[in-house]
Specification:
about 160 residues, alpha/beta, Rossmann fold, 5-stranded parallel β-sheet, 6 helices, 5 strands
Length: about 160
């Protein structure tokens, strides 16, 4: 069985993330969406809340499972019997950072990384942009699933 992991903080998950997850699920027997705690970011949602939002929006993909991890991606891969990391790329700036991470992950754990270009319709999306727009009352319904838009509205109400 060929397995891959789509790691990220997913705070919150966007249609861009879901596009990469769905497309990865077409190429692998099992895709693990791994929600990571990012020490350098202040999260809006807990890991559990993020996992619930992802599970709700990936339930139509029978080979996708959601998990969480705090630590190195290569250690998660070893624990989960995953041989490939799948990362979405929006622009050259993503590539610069992700290439360095891919090289470190290969050196540290012999785990390959596959890059997938984000669909043009979602190439501008980032969780940070979505949170900023939602914070100021902007409409994010074209950027995130309805349950995520509702969670954002509820979390940011009164801030």
């Amino acid at each position: 069985m060929k397995s891959a992991v789509c790691p990220g903080s997913f705070d919150p998950i966007t249609f861009g993330h879901l596009d990469i997850i769905e497309r990865a699920s077409n190429h692998f027997d099992r895709v693990v969406v791994a929600v990571f705690e990012n020490r350098s970011k202040k999260s809006l949602f807990t890991v559990g809340e993020r996992m619930e939002m992802i599970q709700e929006n990936t339930k139509s993909f029978p080979n996708v499972v959601v998990d969480s991890w705090y630590g190195l991606t290569v250690d998660f891969c070893k624990k989960s019997d995953v041989s490939v990391i799948v990362k979405g790329l929006r622009a050259v700036t993503d590539f610069d950072y992700e290439l360095q991470m891919a090289q470190v992950n290969f050196q540290a754990g012999q785990v390959d990384t596959m890059f997938m270009a984000t669909s043009p319709a979602h190439s501008f999306l980032s969780s940070s942009l979505v949170k900023e727009l939602a914070h100021f009352g902007g409409d994010v319904s074209a950027m995130v699933p309805a349950n995520v838009a509702n969670a954002l509205r509820n979390r940011l109400a009164g801030t």
